[in-house]
TrEMBL record:
Belongs to the XseB family. This is Exodeoxyribonuclease 7 small subunit. The gene is xseB. Its EC number is 3.1.11.6. Heterooligomer composed of large and small subunits. HAMAP family: Exonuc_7_S (MF_00337). GO terms for biological process: DNA catabolic process.
Length: 99
């Protein structure tokens, strides 16, 4: 149950987190066990968030436009610029499909 951050995959961490949540919802733990499970759940949440943040950074690096501004694309290829004038500039960007 106490795997290190570098040895647990996103899927394993998420599965363990879901199992802990189910047990806590069913109240299968004593108070002390519940606190330990909650602590482990918070560790797993941090692991999952770190993995997701890393993946997001990689995706952003791959989707930089020619002006070196990050362009976030939605699932339908909707381009969104991260500049303050995104309301006006995102309309002028062509839609991109990731695949």
């Amino acid at each position: 149950m106490a795997e290190s951050k570098s040895k647990i995959s996103f899927e394993e961490a998420l599965l363990e987190l879901e199992q802990i949540a189910e047990k806590l919802e069913r109240q299968d733990f004593s108070l002390e066990e519940s606190l330990k499970a909650y602590e482990r759940g918070m560790e797993l949440k941090k692991i999952c968030q770190g993995i997701l943040d890393s993946a997001e950074g990689k995706i952003e690096a791959l989707t930089k436009d020619e002006t070196k501004k990050t362009v976030k694309t939605g699932f339908k290829g909707e381009a969104k610029s991260e500049t303050k004038s995104s309301a006006t500039s995102s309309k002028s960007l062509e839609e991109e499909d990731l695949f």
